[in-house]
């Protein structure tokens, strides 16, 4: 008889916003002496600027090793081939790890890749679905899967009743997609997350119970759900993992020194931090409105504009900033260490697309928000930020889908100056205090999460 360590294979969908939450959960598992391997696609690994040094990373193939989704040409071609080649190369990886003397016991997979469940069952492994979006959004996709609601809504002014929600929501609050064949395929993938979810052993949600009590209670009647969020580095939460200050994975190189040096010279709570994440692409007209809104707000701002998006900025905008008050008014960077920025005492509010990772980070650090959602889950997140948690405002689009400069200026001033903004700022601090008061963040849940073999060493026959 020999012993080996309990072993989880982590399979994220290969985009940064999906990998980082699963990476953080993996760090928690690893801290409990569980062996971790993270399976990333060869195409994703080629573009990495930074990789976590504490994790074992293995490569699988999505069938497009040179360029991933871009090489595929269409979303349908990508997901079709990923299912075929990914299933095969994931199976080969599991076999390789078994031959190495430390077989996999469990696959924790992103439900964007539901074929992983079949691979797990073929090898007799425990399968665990890890939803990187919040439970409210997952609930909506579940009801689309069941045919209870349709996306997009048929009328822009209709109210939608969703089981598990305490009140109706408007059409503008549900996940949105640009009308195109590609959007249909993306929505199909999101709905298919539930196609075989009844076969899995556990369902993990990157949220925490107090944030979504009603909808979590409702979904828990259908699936074996555990909330394990917020999945951000430990040093911003419970500080149990002393070396866990960063996610450790990025496709962009952050301008850390430039950002923090600039913030260090700004007054407390004076800066608007602006970022739309790693994927969102704003139209040039929207970029101009945003630039003017920031300038007209008369607030200092730190704006993340990816290098591919910079040509959309108004002509001479960056040059003019450098001539204004010694460049103290605003700073534009290609990428930044977002957690360190949100934690900084100079930050007064976060103007955000309301991607779920960014929203969770703001909640975890007590930062009020101005929400400018773009698509997918972001409108639903923005609805909760404004109306349920009351920790921000939503900047409304006009009939062309553009948020105008006057609205942006008004929202920033409301959050940072007005009496209503004072209540929003207080609410943001309350959510921060609630997180600190929790006995644990993720740790206690691990003791009950998986079958007992995860908490002991496993005995295996030679």
Task: Give a brief rundown of this model.
InterPro entries: UDP_glucos_trans (IPR002213), UDP_glycos_trans_CS (IPR035595). The chain is 39% helix and 15% strand. The protein is an alpha/beta fold and 462 residues long.
Summarize the topology.
Layout lengths: L1 E3 L2 E5 L4 H16 L3 E7 H4 L10 E5 L7 H5 L2 H25 L6 E4 L5 H8 L3 E6 L3 H11 L13 E2 L8 E2 L10 H11 L10 E4 L7 H8 L4 E3 L28 H8 L7 E5 L8 H13 L3 E5 L12 H7 L6 E4 L4 H6 L3 E6 L3 H9 L4 E3 L6 H11 L3 E3 L10 H12 L2 H19 L5 H7 L8 E3 L2
Parallel strand pairs: 2-3, 2-5, 3-4, 5-6, 6-9, 9-10, 11-12, 11-14, 12-13, 14-15, 15-16
Antiparallel strand pairs: 1-17, 7-8
Helix pairs in contact: 10-15, 15-16
Family: Belongs to the UDP-glycosyltransferase family.
EC number: 2.4.1.-
Protein name: Glycosyltransferase
Kindly describe this structure.
- This protein has 462 residues and is of the alpha/beta class.
- The protein folds into 2 domains: 2-231 and 442-460, Rossmann fold; 256-437, Glycogen Phosphorylase B (Rossmann fold, 3-Layer(aba) Sandwich).
- It contains 17 helices and 17 strands.
- It has helices at 16-31, 42-45, 68-72, 75-99, 115-122, 135-145, 181-191, 213-220, 256-263, 284-296, 317-323, 338-343, 356-364, 378-388, 405-416, 419-437, 443-449, and strands at 2-4, 7-11, 35-41, 56-60, 106-109, 126-131, 159-160, 169-170, 202-205, 225-227, 271-275, 300-304, 330-333, 347-352, 369-371, 392-394, 458-460.
- It has a 7-stranded parallel beta sheet, with helices on both faces. The protein has a 6-stranded parallel beta sheet with strand order 13-12-11-14-15-16, with helices on both faces.
- α10 packs across α15 (405-416) and α15 crosses α16 (419-437).
- The longest helix has 25 residues, at 75-99.
- It starts with a strand and ends with a strand.
- The model is unreliable at 451-462 (pLDDT under 50).
- Keywords: Glycosyltransferase, Transferase.
- GO terms for molecular function: quercetin 3-O-glucosyltransferase activity; quercetin 7-O-glucosyltransferase activity.
- InterPro entries: UDP_glucos_trans (IPR002213), UDP_glycos_trans_CS (IPR035595).
């Amino acid at each position: 008889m020999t012993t080996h360590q309990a072993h989880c294979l982590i399979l994220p969908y290969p985009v940064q916003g999906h990998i980082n939450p699963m990476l953080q959960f993996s760090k928690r598992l690893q801290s409990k002496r569980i062996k971790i391997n993270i399976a990333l696609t060869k195409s994703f690994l080629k573009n990495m600027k930074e990789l976590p040094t504490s994790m074992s990373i293995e490569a699988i193939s999505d069938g497009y090793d040179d360029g991933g989704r871009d090489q595929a040409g269409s979303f349908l071609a990508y997901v079709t081939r990923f299912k075929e080649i990914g299933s095969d190369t994931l199976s080969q990886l599991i076999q390789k790890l078994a031959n190495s003397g430390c077989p996999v016991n469990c696959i924790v997979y992103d439900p964007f890749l539901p074929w992983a469940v079949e691979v797990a069952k073929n090898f007799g492994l425990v399968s665990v679905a890890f939803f990187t979006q919040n439970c409210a959004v997952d609930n909506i996709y579940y009801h689309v899967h069941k045919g209870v609601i349709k996306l997009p809504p048929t009328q822009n002014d209709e109210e939608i009743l969703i089981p598990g929600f305490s009140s109706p929501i408007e059409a503008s609050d549900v996940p949105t997609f640009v009308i195109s064949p590609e959007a249909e395929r993306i929505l199909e993938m999101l709905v298919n997350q539930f196609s075989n979810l009844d076969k899995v052993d556990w369902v993990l949600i990157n949220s925490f119970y107090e944030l979504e009590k009603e909808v979590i209670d409702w979904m828990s009647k259908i699936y074996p759900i555990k909330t394990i969020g917020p999945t951000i580095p430990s040093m911003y939460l419970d500080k149990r993992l002393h070396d866990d200050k960063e996610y450790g994975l990025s496709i962009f190189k952050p301008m850390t020194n430039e950002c923090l040096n600039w913030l260090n010279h700004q007054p407390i709570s004076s800066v608007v931090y602006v970022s739309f994440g790693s994927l969102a692409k704003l139209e040039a007209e929207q970029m101009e409105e945003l630039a003017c809104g920031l300038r007209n707000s008369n607030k200092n701002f730190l704006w993340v504009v990816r290098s591919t998006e910079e040509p959309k900025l108004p002509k001479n905008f960056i040059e003019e900033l450098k001539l204004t008050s010694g460049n103290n008014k605003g700073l534009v960077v290609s990428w930044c260490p977002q957690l360190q920025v949100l934690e900084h005492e100079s930050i007064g509010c976060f103007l955000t697309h309301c991607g779920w990772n960014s929203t969770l980070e703001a909640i975890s650090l007590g930062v009020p928000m101005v929400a400018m959602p773009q698509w997918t889950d972001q409108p639903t997140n923005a609805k909760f930020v404004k109306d349920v948690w009351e920790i921000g405002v939503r900047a409304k689009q006009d009939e062309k889908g553009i948020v105008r400069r006057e609205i942006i200026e008004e929202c920033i001033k409301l959050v940072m100056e007005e009496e209503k903004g004072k209540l929003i700022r207080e609410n943001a601090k309350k959510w921060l205090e609630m997180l600190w008061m929790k006995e644990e963040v993720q740790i206690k849940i691990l003791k009950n999460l998986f079958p007992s073999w995860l908490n002991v060493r496993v005995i295996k026959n030679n």
